[in-house]
């Protein structure tokens, strides 16, 4: 004789199956909703952080004296300085009447130039490395030190939107 199921047994099996299916559907829906919420929150946080980063970058660049401006079409960018004029005479014209047989050491001219440059670099230097950007705030080309030397470099006036930097590390060049 085969076992018989009562209505009560059938109702119990039906309830267990419904509970199991409900649990599976609930788990799937929870996973899907969690995934969607996570994506949306991640997108919002990324956008907000990007806005904050952009603002802080603009503020930092403004502190360093960089301003965002567009050059009018057709006008060339002003030259930051003219020829280097050394206070030590290391850039004085070489007398072409001297012969190559002389004991004149041409490397000493370079040493004088290096000493002159080193003297200038010792003035008001920000020891912290600063990012150096080209064209856009997102095109980092180098890390360098900013030298706050005033409106002249080697006795030559420089444009207000120029600053003297010492490149320490080239990143994209």
Automatic annotation (TrEMBL):
Protein known as: Uncharacterized protein
Ranges where the record places region Disordered: 63-128
Entry superkingdom: Eukaryota
Acidic residues bias spans: 97-128
């Amino acid at each position: 004789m085969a076992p018989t199921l009562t209505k009560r047994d059938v109702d119990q099996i039906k309830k267990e199956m419904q509970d199991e299916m409900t649990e599976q559907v609930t788990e799937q829906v929870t996973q899907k909703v969690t995934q969607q919420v996570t994506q949306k929150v991640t997108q919002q946080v990324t956008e907000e952080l990007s806005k904050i980063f952009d603002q802080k970058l603009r503020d930092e660049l403004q502190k360093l004296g960089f301003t965002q401006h567009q050059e009018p079409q057709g006008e060339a960018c002003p030259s930051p300085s003219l020829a280097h004029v050394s206070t030590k005479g290391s850039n004085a014209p070489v007398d072409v009447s001297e012969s190559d047989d002389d004991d004149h050491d041409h490397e000493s001219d370079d040493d004088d130039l290096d000493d002159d440059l080193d003297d200038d670099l010792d003035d008001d230097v920000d020891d912290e490395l600063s990012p150096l950007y080209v064209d856009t705030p997102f095109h980092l080309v180098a890390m360098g030190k900013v030298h706050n030397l005033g409106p002249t470099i080697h006795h030559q006036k420089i444009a207000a939107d120029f600053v003297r930097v010492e490149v320490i590390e080239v990143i994209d060049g």
